[in-house]
Design goal:
The structure is a homodimer.
Chain A lengths: L23 H6 L6 E3 L5 E6 L8 E7 L6 H12 L7 E6 L3 E5 L25 E2 L6 E3 L7 E2 L23 E5 L2 E11 L6 E10 L5 E4 L13 E4 L12 E8 L2 H4 L20 E8 L10 E5 L4 H11 L22 E4 L3
Antiparallel strand pairs in A: 1-16, 2-3, 2-15, 3-14, 4-5, 4-15, 5-13, 6-11, 7-8, 7-9, 9-10, 10-11, 12-13, 12-14, 16-17
């Protein structure tokens, strides 16, 4: 029998009396059509990398972050793409278990590519968003039930019931508008009865595998969007609230994660290996692509019932390969399902 | 100014009145010589992959797991290496954000390589270890102080003090013998006063980036060591307690993480891309290598004061790049420092 580190095999085990539990992917396959949300064409970036030796194209698709997160930087990235700034740049850094980064190789030199007018200068305070009731952030909860951050329940006790979606970097983790986010809470007085209540204070997007962010220099520089990175290793969550996230890779991630690692400091390509830099032919918004049909994608609404069931199944693997359901999951182990669909 | 997604730049910021806090790596650089522990040569596996096009050798070094974890599987891996079983096999699977796996491409066929005699058949119960007081597992605690699992304190409250080393997959995370582990607790009666006390029940090694495990088929098959994988993405902690970990990659990880991803199911190379399989020339224990000097490595003792300070600094980044220390860290974001040293 073929050995699989993780076998998503779909046949029932003879020793099981009952039906095997559906896998997370099988749950997603049963989603209702209306639970899938179309990603707007102006929220899709298509990056084309120079072909590899055999001449095949390498295309990476990035979904930009929705409001209210990082919108100033997202605007900058859109402007840079529309102006053609990224066309002809290169991947300049690949640090193992960390990030792949692209930008202008001549950035510090006289022949650096000029930036377009109109880029916004963002403040560090914009890394997070003050909580407001219209932010529909769905917390991860046990048993596949949904809970908005307004009605969050206390965490289960530490002994007896294993923790569910505990997080080392925040008070709670959630999904908002299709993206993973984290939140810190504060104690406030209930407006009706004056009793102390716990309520969210600030929310921010989190650094999971494939998330895309804006490189920057030392604080208070927050980056202008001219150099971008994506996470290619274990989620570097210590970067949360320290750097702006603008989206995530939704297709073609392997073209960025499998590139040769740089031997210079921080994984930048060293002088003698500049030939390893991957040229970027173009970065375009899907809405400006001439090709017909334009690429189109949907994500599974993180406010849907199916997403809640999917998250619960990721936390309690009961498909046949597993003997110990963890009864909990890291938010970065609950990737939001995305699928390519025919253009409208 | 050059933009860095994570700048470990060592100059002081002009706006800072005080000295910048040392980075985690700077703390490690100040470790006392006796805090570094030599890894025994029989715990080192050296895997040599076929050279890439330019003819450079690709060497991967794996540190095997210490007692009391997974020792039956570790014995199997040593036996397989000593018997030459792995020599001439290949990397057969690379699944993005998951695992790179190697083994016998002909495993299911008539010309499959014969296994050596003497391989142990392990039980699923061996994925975890029942807690015993001689397991020196050091829990992660705030402020760089150390705490053994015997004297664990309750977690800090959820509001006010951010969580520190909360974990979604276990009651606590810790380090034992240089490896990351997780534990579940139980309520028991104190042997002296009969009061209920919390004590560890079972402990297991965890799936972080670069950890090495034994592929298996469907349960109750636990794998014999003939096919091995390493984690190349976000820690797939749901595999904990479901599969045996036998070690971790300590050098040359990039040779496994940057390989072309397979297009078949689960990232196995499909029929038309068998040429992407990377041949394994040999896998030897360092202790049997003819080369002089033999490769030698040390790890920073996870029971040392410096390791505790390093873990605390990973959880509270105060080096100049950071504006928001997270005040917490995922155990997989605290990689155990390892360094190559001259052979004795």
């Amino acid at each position: 029998m073929k050995k699989l580190a993780l076998a998503l095999m779909l046949f029932a085990q003879p020793m099981l009396a009952q039906e095997p539990a559906p896998s997370p992917n099988e749950i997603v396959d049963q989603a209702k059509p209306e639970e899938w949300k179309r990603i707007a064409a102006e929220d899709l970036l298509v990056m084309t990398l120079a072909p590899v030796a055999e001449g095949k194209p390498r295309e990476v698709v990035i979904q930009l972050m929705p409001a209210p997160f990082s919108q100033g930087w997202v605007d900058n990235v859109r402007l840079l793409a529309l102006s053609g700034y990224y066309d002809g740049l290169a991947v300049i850094r690949v640090q193992d278990n960390y990030v792949t980064q692209w930008g202008d190789p001549a950035e510090e030199e006289a022949d650096a590519k000029p930036l377009p007018d109109g880029l916004k200068v963002m403040e560090e305070g914009e890394y997070t968003v003050a909580y407001a009731p219209d932010i529909m952030a769905y917390l991860l909860t046990p048993n596949g039930k949904r809970s908005t951050v307004q009605s969050v329940e206390p965490l289960p006790p530490m002994v007896g019931t294993p923790t569910k979606f505990s997080d080392a970097y925040a008070h709670a983790v959630a999904f908002a508008g299709g993206f993973p986010v984290a939140a810190i809470f504060e104690i406030a007085k209930d407006s009706v009865n004056g009793k102390p209540v716990r309520r969210p204070k600030s929310i921010w997007p989190v650094h999971c595998y494939g998330m895309v962010g804006v490189a920057r220099g030392m604080s208070p520089n927050t980056g202008d969007g001219s150099s971008i990175y994506t996470v290619i290793g274990h989620a570097p969550r210590h970067l949360d609230r320290n750097i702006a996230l603008v989206g995530r890779v939704i297709e073609g991630m392997e073209h960025l994660s499998s590139l040769p690692r740089g031997k210079g400091p921080l994984g930048f390509y060293a002088e003698e290996e500049m030939n390893k830099r991957t040229p970027i032919l173009s970065v375009k918004l899907a809405s400006e692509l001439q090709q017909i049909p334009q690429p189109a994608f949907e994500y599974l609404s993180t406010e849907s019932e199916t997403f809640a069931k999917y998250a619960a199944a990721r936390a309690n693997r009961r498909d046949p390969f597993f003997i110990h359901p963890a009864n909990g999951a890291d938010i970065c182990n609950i990737p939001v399902p995305v699928r390519r669909v025919p253009s409208e």
